[in-house]
Amino acid sequence: MTTVLSTIDARSLGRTNYHEHLFQVTPLLPGDELDDEDASRQEAGLLRESGFDAMIDATPTALGRNPAALARISRATGIHVVATTGGHREAHYAPGHWLLELSSGELGNRFTDDVQVGMPVRDAAGSAEVVANEAGLPVRAGVLKAGIGYWGWTAFERRVLAAVAAAHARTGAPVMVHLEHGSAAFELLEVLASDGVRPEAVLLAHVDRNPDPGLHAELAAAGAYLGYDGFARTRDWPDSMLTDCLVRSAELGANDRLMIGGDVARRTRYVAYGGRPGLAYVGRRVLPRLVQAGYEDLVEAVLVRNPARYLSTASRSANRTLPKERDRGVGDPRCSPW
């Protein structure tokens, strides 16, 4: 599998946080930009000190991602970083943004290049110089990301799904999808399957925003991986509700498909930027509670075994029949009338 420094065996990643952001700039979060390399490096160090060996940086194309800085931070802190390409849900891009104007074929070619060739120094409409790390190797993405809205998706988001599917077919890179409030999970899996992506290659981010262990067990039985990352959001729910849901989901059969992250994603919540609780929260507050309750094996599964399997075996699920030149058509831009 691919990190920002090299290609390694996913089994050597160690304890992996499946979802964080070291850099992110979006019109949805004005004043909460993550754009300071020194501060982000300090925050990554805190994540490392809290017991994590690796992380997926889940910032996709044109949202302030900084692949050169990710490589420098990885080398400085010793934490493995897996970078992301793809597109987020449409609300993260200002009206008229160049990415919104691209066809699914053009998007698929960009995402494929980010995985196979390397990510550009700066995301822009035209081609750009590929970033190299200190060893002179291209900084490549290892995960393909898409995002959808609440119980539906726009025409742009459907193009991104098709593009991610095409890039997955060419590269074998695993797929992550942002679910708004954990909605439309099965509907999303059906659409991706129609585009050639098997559920075993898909990680459903924020599924715990709908804390339904029965649903989670059903999604896991279908083959999908499930991302829990809603911790420290006490305004909405206590951590205990999510840990209880995690444990119950595992008991119902989802043990081999669960992962944990933080998705803090805001400067006002990063210690190094002057906020709180920071990236160390999950390692310092959530995981010890699970261990003390006797769920050491579940912690090992969600941090080590499951991320390694997701990042190393998704390529076996890829349908490799889609030619790169094909601009795949899209279906109904809505998955639900709701």
Keywords:
8 strands, alpha/beta, disordered C terminus, eight-stranded parallel β-sheet, single chain, 338 residues
Strand content: 5-15%
| String of helices and strands | EHEHEHEHEHEHEHEHH
How many helices? The count is 9
> Total number of β-strand segments?
8
Gist of the model:
With about 350 residues, this protein is an alpha/beta fold.
Describe this structure in words.
The structure is a single chain. With 338 residues, the chain is α/β, with parallel strands linked by helices. The chain contains 9 helices and 8 strands. The radius of gyration is 18 Å and the shape is globular. It starts with 15 loop residues before the first strand and ends in a 25-residue tail after the last helix. 51% of the residues are buried. Mean pLDDT is 92; it is low at 314-338.
What's the layout of helices and strands?
Blueprint: E1 16-20, H1 37-49, E2 54-57, H2 67-77, E3 80-86, H3 104-116, E4 141-147, H4 155-171, E5 175-178, H5 185-194, E6 202-205, H6 213-221, E7 225-228, H7 239-254, E8 258-260, H8 281-292, H9 296-313
Parallel strand pairs: 1-2, 2-3, 3-4, 4-5, 5-6, 6-7, 7-8
Helix pairs in contact: 1-2, 3-4, 6-7
